[in-house]
Hints:
Layout: H1 2-21, H2 25-30, E1 34-35, E2 50-56, H3 65-72, E3 75-80, E4 85-90, H4 93-100, E5 105-110, E6 113-115, E7 128-129, E8 136-137, H5 149-153, E9 173-179, E10 199-205, H6 226-235, E11 251-256, E12 263-265, H7 266-280, E13 285-290, E14 294-295, H8 307-319, E15 323-327, E16 339-340, E17 348-354, E18 384-391, E19 393-397, E20 400-404, E21 406-409, E22 415-418, H9 421-438, H10 444-453, H11 482-485
Helix pairs in contact: 6-9, 7-8
Amino acid sequence: MSYIRNILLGMAGLLLAGAVSAQPAQGLMRAGFEPCPDPGQAIESLATPCMALVQFGEAQAPGRGAQLLRGAGAVVRFDFPVLNGAAVLVPNERVYWALVNDQRIARLLPDRRLGIAAPPSRCSPWPSCKNDDGGAQPPEPGTSNPIPAGVQRIGADQVWNRTTGPSATGLGVIVWVVDTGVDGSHADLQPDSGTGIGGYIGGVSCLGTASTASCVTDGGIDDNGHGTHVAGIVGARHNDIDVVGVAPDSAIASVKVLDSTGNGYDSNLIAGLEYIASQAATGGLHVVNMSLARPGNCQPGEEDSGAALISDSLTWLNQRGVAVVAAAGNDPNKEISDLVPAGCPQVMAVASTTAMDGTNKCRALRGSILADTASYFTTDGAGVLVSAPGSTREDNTCGGIQPKGILSLAVGGGTTEKNGTSMAAPHVAGLAALMLQADAALPPDGVRTLIGCHATRRGQAPLSHPFISQSFDGEREGIAWAPATVGAQPCN
């Protein structure tokens, strides 16, 4: 009977593999396949199909693993030549155990889900927090190209054309937006018509298909809106359209790793990071922004074995001279050590603060939520490098907090407001671009050190929230500050 069962399982796997190979990974994600269990831990139940990461042993020649996996009946979603691994869909138990028992495979790991995380819509027990993303927003009255409050708060506009000290606009630096894609047709992301400077330079989709096993050059189109908003904070052009980004002459490249719902897998992120590493290997100045997260632990020796491959990819990027920025996360009950990739030592984790003083609309309560206050939603913890604006301000209404989002670009044109550490991180990614233009020899560790030690209000900010009891880590790492950081010497 077991022989017949194995035959039936094999036939079912082949049928599933054939069906899956005809559809893109967008369909795979929406099918809701769960991560495969880690065979190194107790397996109480094995539900298939499931998603797995594979790393081959040293005896397996790089680039030859896909054939091995397909021969076992797995559907290869990505080939990872740098890591000598792959991402697969495992159609049934027979294939799972065949992979686990294959001596040429060193590790089979869960391919966990990750995505963008919106700030919580409520605080507990008091007050309530109404997190509305504002929708489409017209420019401020009397302005045609306003400099958003977050860009002003980190002082980026003060270094664009300064006469004392090096000026910088991000010219010559590529910032990779690893996200839901970017609307490359947005008017405020077009290169200068005369010089070709800045703006959107193209992108790839790393959602993957079973037939390509790699990222696809298709423009990395944004069908969600999150990535375009992030890109605008980094590099919206200094023209007469919409807003201005932190590094308005930087080149924006899109690496789409999240689908229209803002969700993906570890494998999508790893594929995107490997792609960037391949491009950085040819030279140039590069910065990566990752405004995404999942629960987990990136520290060596922890149970989250799947994060080890993400960590390895980030190490490879750092070795290629790429500075990597990540959002700290939007759960004040967690620390960044509870999140991936924010908790990985290779990234610069950024927490969120307010850019301006909020308004007090409640006579029963005195005071307002000041600029540089820790956002009600921000994750912090040991390892946060710096804070930056993730909201323009938080207004106090009787019994409630109303955050006003960061103004940036919207899919299809125009602007919109969003809140979150997703918005804080690109302020720092843009700052890194300014720094690299001023000093192209800066290694990633040098970028990290200067941003941290030249932050303004170190030891004083972020301010504790006056109305919400947060699990504050006690570290007041300060707010990112471009004037002191761009072209700076190492701190004493």
